[in-house]
């Protein structure tokens, strides 16, 4: 498709969403077109390069915040305990306890990235029940609310990205998108627009229903009690070290790593796929968040199980984890995006930083290169 065809196709799509054509056929399944600010599922996309025919906006109103003092107190306690736990991790705990805390960090991370995020929120692959069971156990260790609630919030985050209906709206700043959103009452728009969100697929899974129903028993066991008891009884660790290192420090660490995806990866990094949105390619976040920092790609194509293009797998532990289970048949129907669509999108909406389709690629004409303003150039 050449550029003019492509432009006219976008124009047609825009007309379709404005109701000039039969809207019921074109309306995205998970959205009411007037309000959405980002694609959530593949079926939402309306342009040939899988976008919405709108320019995304960033919006936050100025209404006063209502503090939730219970959460402020609990998070303050957690972080003070975690700093002490970090000290004990380095200078006091047995190496088995440190290793155990590291393993808990990885498995609870996977419970979020491979489970709540890529499997349940985005349906980017399917999993047989043994893998879903493993992931729900991992997810309970992470204590970031039940997977159903996590996936619901996250669908809002993509669909209404960076507006008041996004639970951690990055337009409100780094602190709000990191932890602040958990310290104040939710914006009324979240509840209002959340009513239109389809989460029936999540409730259809008996494993997820079980986790949600018994969450207040399962979560304390998985996140706090067992991580404290196991080091004491299995390798003779002290109660203090076990509790502050394997429970408090490890829990606060993975929480902050997850929050960095909402804060840092919505602020710093390149935007090779869509320069109109805040989410960015942040490699440092990817390292800690098991591959979840390629966030400009992820918000552009959220249904891709890799949350990144191929070639980034070295830093994408979660993708390797899913690939392993795909090999033994427990993960299947893995969705990804074709090179051709990525290329179209990079050219139309990217910021020019794409390593393959940016400066100096095979389609980059000499006249374009010559016309570019280059500061402090080196001959190439
Ligand atoms: Zn995001
Ligand atoms: Zn996502």
UniProtKB/TrEMBL annotation:
User: GO terms for biological process?
Assistant: unsaturated fatty acid biosynthetic process
Q: Where is the Fatty acid desaturase domain?
A: 95-302
Topology in the membrane?
A: Multi-pass membrane protein
Return the annotated region ranges for Disordered.
358-380
Where do transmembrane segments lie in this chain? 72-93, 99-120, 214-236, 242-261
Compartment annotation:
Membrane
Basic and acidic residues: bias regions: 361-380
Q: Which cofactor does it need?
A: Fe(2+)
- What PANTHER family does the database record attribute to this sequence? ACYL-COA DESATURASE, DESATURASE 1, ISOFORM A-RELATED
Family note: Belongs to the fatty acid desaturase type 1 family.
Q: What is known of its domains?
A: The histidine box domains are involved in binding the catalytic metal ions.
Q: Mind telling me what this protein is named? A: Acyl-CoA Delta(11) desaturase
Q: Which organism is it from?
A: Eumeta variegata (Bagworm moth)
